[in-house]
Amino acid sequence: MRAMSQAGSSAPIPSIEVAARDPEWIAHRYDPGHDAVHLLPVPRAQQRKATFLTDEYLPAGLQPLIVRRRDAAGALPAPAPIHFVFHSAFCCSTVVANAFDLRGRSMGLKEPVILNDLIGWRRRGGEGPDMAEVLDDALRLLARPFAQGESIVVKPSNAINALIAPILTLRPQAQALLLHAPLRTYLGSIARKGLDGRLWVRTLLLGLLDDRLVDLGFSPRDHLGQTDLQVAAIGWLAQHALFARTVQAFGPGRVRTLDSATLMADPARAMAALATHFGIPFSDSELAAIVSGPAFTSHSKFGTTFGAIERANEEETGVALHADEIDKVIAWTQAVADAAGISMVAPAPLF
Fold this sequence. Notes:
Blueprint: H1 16-21, E1 25-31, E2 36-41, H2 44-49, E3 65-68, H3 69-74, E4 82-87, H4 93-99, E5 106-110, H5 113-123, H6 131-142, E6 151-155, H7 164-170, E7 176-180, H8 183-192, H9 194-210, H10 220-224, H11 228-250, E8 255-259, H12 260-265, H13 267-278, H14 284-292, H15 294-297, H16 308-320, H17 323-340
Parallel strand pairs: 4-6, 4-7, 5-6, 7-8
Antiparallel strand pairs: 1-2, 2-3
């Protein structure tokens, strides 16, 4: 079957069978009303360059190939090994995903929108096809190998964290890293982003409430009376509790945790441990190239030089400008955590 031509190009869009087998046709969107998948042509180099696999960062004017989900799934090749970097935001998760772009070994997929579509559909009630079946097909679409022997490392948006347990249940061979920033660093990141950051944490809290992931003794009305950084801390703590439950449910053999400070303090050790956890055989020279390469030395959004020193200076600036408020919110969060029986230290550390 031939379909529409790509916008701005005379080249025809390939058949469903060809596109479904080609990981450079990314599984971009899921339309539950028509039980259809939108595939977009994005070469590997552009996938690597894009901060996230979202419309904001992908080339403009791409013409999707819209196919029935079952048709796309029926044409898929044998899946590659797939692993996951789940996170609670502002914790260098994009750095980790970029670090796994190594031809012949692995490819990192950064925040594919199709998973966001599924969590949105779930929050709306998920009427139509069976949710587990659709999620399974979405994971199969994400696990298309770029080359023989390559693994796929998916870093979803933290908006989909309510799907962590279903994803790991559907993929019993998948390993997961649960990545977070220390609370002080996280609050500094939010404060540094100004109004955008403060609005974002409230949007995050709404999603966590919709997903029934907040059980800290507060009513929805209570959250209206909390400051922006208290709301940020609630979101951080709710995800921290979710990560602890995930380790308990799936075990440290499959699920490990890591904080961004430990990652950036010793990236070579962290990447070596994570490669072992994911079963991806990096050589010493490959690991050295990863740690000295753009993933760890350039800004994931702007591409400018941004190593450990620049990152530490940025974090210190965010904390220093709001130190009094951050100190008070950290003390308050510890009290909330103690009352809820939540440890502020994540279990099953990567190393």
